[in-house]
Amino acid sequence: MATKNELRQHYLEKRSKIPFEKINKWSKKINERFLSLKDLETAQKIMSYISMRKEVNTYPLLETLIENGFKLYLPYTLKKEGTLGTAQINNLDLDLQAGVFGVQEPKRELRNKKVPGDLDIIIVPGAVFNKAGYRIGYGGGYYDKFLAEHGQSALKVAFAYEEFIIDDFPVEDHDIAVDMIITQTDIITIEN
């Protein structure tokens, strides 16, 4: 079986070759599926990642969530602690700045040291996922640490292109599975 690092490299390389036209088409379908979730009827606080490179494009979804009155939280990297912080965002044009690893992050003045204890939904990025809901991220372990500390009661949702869900890969004790994976063709509920 390939190592996590080999799988990460393989799937990031594969993803980099997908044309933007497909990315936008698939992302639109994934975002629509997310917005159709029954869980949104009772959710108030949603944390999401900000897409980069050829990840599922979250920008239109984030705009919609803000417009519809959800409290939207976006992550920033706490490099020393090896985890993430969150800040509430009200305007994607005004509230973001370039951060660690070239990712857009909430501006410093919006950052609060305390992560809300009542996040309803956390949208989690990843390079590749398995059918049990585990993910291979980008190698820093930031999300696993964050989810272990703050994700117990939240619905953990991953966005992935269908061909980036594989049967199996090595899972470690600290890995945290998501509850649901949304692809351009399906919503997969994980039975944990």
From TrEMBL:
Broad EC category: ligase
GO function terms (MF aspect): 5-formyltetrahydrofolate cyclo-ligase activity; ATP binding; metal ion binding
UniProt binding sites for substrate: I50, E55
InterPro entries for this protein: FTHF_cligase, FTHF_cligase-like_sf, NagB/RpiA_transferase-like
Swiss-Prot/TrEMBL catalytic activity: (6S)-5-formyl-5,6,7,8-tetrahydrofolate + ATP = (6R)-5,10-methenyltetrahydrofolate + ADP + phosphate
Binding-site residues for ATP, renumbered to this chain: K4, N5, E6, L7, R8, R135, I136, G137, Y138, G139, G140, G141, Y142, Y143
Family the UniProt entry places it in: Belongs to the 5-formyltetrahydrofolate cyclo-ligase family.
NCBIfam families, alphabetized: MTHFS_bact
Matching PANTHER family: 5-FORMYLTETRAHYDROFOLATE CYCLO-LIGASE, ATPASE INHIBITOR/5-FORMYLTETRAHYDROFOLATE CYCLO-LIGASE
Name of the protein this chain belongs to: 5-formyltetrahydrofolate cyclo-ligase
